[in-house]
Amino acid sequence: MGFAVMNPMLVGLPIIGYPTNVRGVPAVSYRRGSKMLTGEQYKESLRDGRATYFEGERIDDLVGHPLLGQTVETTASGYDQHYDPAPDARSPLLAVPQSADDLRELIPMLHHAGMMAHVTSTSIQTLKTAAGRMTGVKPEYIERIGGYIDEAQRNDVRITQCITDAKGNRAKKPSDQDDPDSYTRVVSRERDGVVIRGAKLHITGASFGHDLLTIPTKAMKPGEEDWSIGCVVPVNAEGVKIINTTYAPRHEDARVFPVSGTHHYPEGFVIFDDVFVPWERVFLDGETAFAAVFAHSLGLWERLGGLSAFVEECDQLVGFAQLVAEANGTAGISHVKEKISEMIIHATLIRSTLEAAIMNCNTGPDGAAFPNELFVNAGKFHAAANYNLMVRHLHDMSGGAVLTAPAPADFENEEVGDLARKYMSTGHDVDGEYRARLMHAIRDLTADAYGGWKFVTNLQAGGGLYAQRIVTRRHYDLDGAKRKALAIAGLAEDDVH
After folding, report:
1. Is 86 in a helix, a strand, or coil?
2. Which one of 31, 352, 475, 481 has the fewest CB atoms closer than 10 angstroms to its CB?
3. Residue 201: CB partners within 8 Å, gap ≥ 6?
């Protein structure tokens, strides 16, 4: 899932005549004569009439919105980091890795550039991986995927992947739902494209990109052809409506929320209300046997993103644990040292699985590299399954001040500031305000709205833990393990007479 876009008509950049469909709207709305975007050009690209909503109101100006505009600024900064004015330049954030070294270089680059860069790369790698696995399907699908990737790279767009459907009654398959729109489906096929209807949930950053990569949420069976649809839809296409939710704090003083106060990415509830998609942007239509290819390909890259994020987060948790233990005067206590040692071991094992996934990467038929599925899924499962325990250790060491420390503004108050500093201090070498700021960071990261978002998304991003169990089992050499056990027992074929 996206938790884990318009074709921009930018100011100052020429728009060359596009082919139009029977509805009289552009079938392809990308700029010709492409070049990379600056942060300011990205901002202009969002002023395209997209229908995006937040807390009951339609937002006509994402850039200027006091809360959502912060996400725009973060994304624009990611553009500026890698901007190259050369006419033929392409962003390294949208590159397709060809080796383990390429993978290793791409991952930190994406994290530094922000969530929108991550979901865009994930979308491109998903399409590239799926194309390499779609043997025996219509060749035009593979050609369209290749053409779209090239165009997206040339135009420096941002893409969000839309996979999780509303699903209705989870015990029923798509064709048996009371409402057939519970899974996104094709409602009509026309001479020049298809019309889709449905909703995709938990789509991180959906309102802040240009295209929506829309793919089946799971394997489909014969009789479920209408739900086997894979395509790309511009965010500003007629009929697309996005409802935004966010964990971003509604607080005047961002210092109280040092993690989420300025960097946050709203989740999109994406609605396709009879949206027309031209054939050029359709990558699957009715071939049920290939529906799962897209879901599995996305799952691999989503889990790699989750695993790589865990690597950094685990180190952060260890750092906070050691700092707060020192500030509390408990760093030498045996059970505190034991907890921190356990957190260090966890962080090291997670980093090892990421390195193993990269070093043992596989290569598709066209030379694109993708991470080893066994190590990605085993690492993501272990990290997510044990995240709560690591946070529990941190909370146990920190104490109740994680929730009750005075705000930064309280330390500036003439009447109570010095007293707050005095009683938050634990000794001559520990400033009370410093200790309070540590507590605010820990709360914001692990025990407030953003912390709650992290708890859920760590489990659900890339599919729940069960999905990672399935893929890990599928790629583990179980027969090899059995042979080793038989050999030890003296029951191997060479030992049995």
Report:
1. coil
2. 481
3. 1, 164, 165, 166, 269, 270
Set out the domains of the chain in order of their start, with CATH numbers.
39-287 (2.40.110.10), 292-482 (1.20.140.10)
Q: 408: Cβ–Cβ under 8 A, 6 or more apart, which residues?
A: 253, 255, 256, 433, 436, 437, 440
Do 108 and 82 form a contact (C-beta atoms < 8 A)? no
Dig out the tokens for 114 from the structure. Answer: 């922000």
Tell which residue, 397, 387, 386, has the closest CA to residue 337: 397
* Strand (E) or helix (H) holding 24: none
Tokens (6 digits) for 389: 């325990």
CA–CA separation, 358 and 372 (whole Å):
7
Q: How far apart are CA 28 and CA 277, in angstroms?
A: 10
For 479, residues 6+ apart whose C-beta sits below 8 A from its C-beta are none
CA distance linking residue 113 with residue 110, whole number of Å: 5
pTM of structure: 0.88
CA–CA separation, 430 and 327 (whole Å): 6
CA distance 208 to 79: 13
29 CB-side CA count, 13 A:
23
The β-bridge partners of 285 are 229
The predicted-structure confidence for 219-262, as pLDDT tens digits, reads as follows: 999 999 999 999 999 999 999 999 999 999 988 898 999 999 98
| Residue 388 CB neighbours (<10 A) | 13
